[in-house]
Specification:
Blueprint: H1 17-28, H2 33-40, H3 44-57, H4 68-81, H5 86-94
């Protein structure tokens, strides 16, 4: 029996064996990075890098770094230095 035609693989079929192993561990650990570290015996930054690699291989673009954290940090720095009150900080953070 012969099957002929043009067939398209699913996006997960295109992952390398190493990437599939990582995805398997990631799902097994329910996305808990600390658990993935233990499961695979790798560091936190390595888990994050592997996750980025898999996401890229699946066609997802890297999320641009948001400017929000720097805004939040500035507000918290002002609060810490006494430039603004707790209430002002809460109001600014909720905007």
């Amino acid at each position: 029996t012969t099957i002929e035609g043009h067939f398209q693989l699913c996006k997960f079929c295109k992952l390398t064996s190493e990437q599939k192993k990582f995805v398997d561990a990631f799902i097994k650990c329910r996305g808990n990075i600390k658990e993935v570290e233990k499961e695979l015996g790798i560091s936190y930054p390595t888990v994050k890098n592997k996750l980025e690699d898999v996401a890229a291989a699946l066609g997802y673009k890297r999320q641009p770094e948001s400017e929000e954290p720097s805004k939040k940090k500035q507000i918290l720095d002002k609060l810490n230095s006494g430039e603004i009150s707790v209430d002002e900080a809460i109001e600014l953070l909720s905007e």
